[in-house]
Amino acid sequence: MKITKDLYQGSLALLTDFYQLTMAYAYWKSGKAEQEAVFNLFFRKHPFQSGFTIAAGLEYVVDFCNNFYFKDDDLSYLGQMKNADGSPVFESTFLAYLKSLNFTCDIDAVEEGTVVFPHTPLISVKGPLIQCQLLETALLNIINFQTLIATKSARVVLAAKGDSVLEFGLRRAQGIDGALAASRASYIGGCAATSNVMAGKLFGIPVSGTHAHSWIMSFDSELEAFKAYADAFPEKCVFLVDTYDTVAGIKNAIEVGKILREKGKEMLGVRIDSGDLAYFSNIAREMLDEAGFQDAQVVASNDLDEHIITSLKIQEASVSVWGVGTKLVTAYDQPALGAVYKLAAIKNQNGVWEPKVKVSQQSIKTNIPGKHQVSRFLKNGRAVADMIFLKEYMEGKTSTTIIDPIDPTKRKRINFEDFEEINLLKPIFRKGTQVYDCLKIDAIKQNAQDNLMYFDKTHKRLTNPHVYPVGLEESLYQLRTALVFKMKNYDK
User: Fold this and answer.
1) N- to C-terminal Cα distance for the chain?
2) How many CB atoms lie within 10 A of CB 334?
3) Distance between CA atoms of 211 and 50, rounded to whole angstroms?
């Protein structure tokens, strides 16, 4: 599926910050445009104070890179830009360079649905400096949002404890793009279906929905509305029962349910969208059971999230399907993931790779140098630690120590023979050619569920989760420390 082709009719090369283009121009002017570099995309803290994060958005990234080029009207727009003195911002020869620019980068990435942790690369890009730089903004835009929403969805689904969760957020989402990406990411995180029909068409996600209060209000009575809906959709009757009076609405739903049964059909359930959901869901369950509709489901909606669902579970609410909208697709309690994209290595004029580090007064903002791989160590089917490392330092090693990048007192010894080892970063592009087949949406969703099974329930707690160990391989930790000392002139 060609996302940008379907939605945007071609390249999105101008979906970038202006300073990416000014840097690109300056690279070109200084002769550095084709100098090879490595950039890593990662985040520093889990969203929602979670103990895990679900990677999402790679298919968008693949499609963006496959369609990365500057169109004639893009270059015309850039050519019209003027400096304060009236001179062109960009020389015509630079615009001609952009016109001939072909995507030639290598990209490695974790697969969508992978459980990931702070500081580990979700994407690593190697290629000409100018190309790496021009990819930054779009890659961050894609990965930040979809990873955020997939993680929120996974948390909501965990709170539901096996009940179905439906994503109902289209009308409250942050624009058309946000709605589509949120529906996709919500499904990856574990939602069973979406109300978003376009997302269903584009991504192959099951769609779900029945009727709103306006349907009821358009008739003279609620009972008449339910009967008319049952005539139209006898196979898909979930009646919204709280337009006027919830208990009366349940009675009317049961009456129409009996009419359906006489015709050989079954009412699927009732939906409650307001009021005391714990109280009314239990009333609904009792009334449905007494009327012989034990299989009819009670669906709840109304500004739900993982915390409200957890509360309703504690109250023993009789809800079996949860419709979650606004607080899911807008990531209501944390509006951004905060992933960053940092230069990690550059090839000098002698063809030697030089690791690069950004030094900060805040240790959490000091990046990790080099082109990394990430290993996940499993024992008896459970994840025990993740290790960020440089391949060139691992030859011949049978064991190592991983060191927390923020708190070096947190260390873990790893004997490789004691664990199953999985490399998380997969080849996606080589010299600009796609070498990875993107997973189908259902496979991505299953990947997320399988990944979560690797982790102890303490890591998946919704509040105060146990911290999963992630560290730098000791040689990489020593390299970063030495570079920091060098950049701060501690060695002088």
Assistant:
1) 56
2) 17
3) 35
For helices 246-262 and 222-232, the axis angle rounded to 10 degrees is 40
Other C-beta atoms lying within 10 Å of the C-beta of residue 399: 10
The structure tokens listed for 3 are: 């996302």
Residue type, 40: N
* Count of Cβ atoms closer than 10 Å to residue 264 Cβ: 7
Taking every pair of Cα atoms in the chain, the longest distance, rounded to a whole number of angstroms, is 90
**Tens of pLDDT along 28-53?**
999 999 999 999 999 999 999 999 99
Fold that domain 155-329 belongs to in CATH = TIM Barrel (3.20.20)
> CA-to-CA distance for 216 and 325, rounded, in angstroms?
21
What's 3-150+336-371+424-468's CATH class? alpha beta
For the record, the structure tokens of 244 come out as: 């006027």
State the pLDDT confidence band at 208, using cuts at 50, 70 and 90.
very high
What is the Cβ-side half-sphere exposure of residue 19, based on CA atoms within 13 angstroms? 2
Domain ranges, ordered by start, for the chain: 3-150+336-371+424-468, 155-329
Report H helices in 161-262: 175-189, 197-203, 213-217, 222-232, 246-262
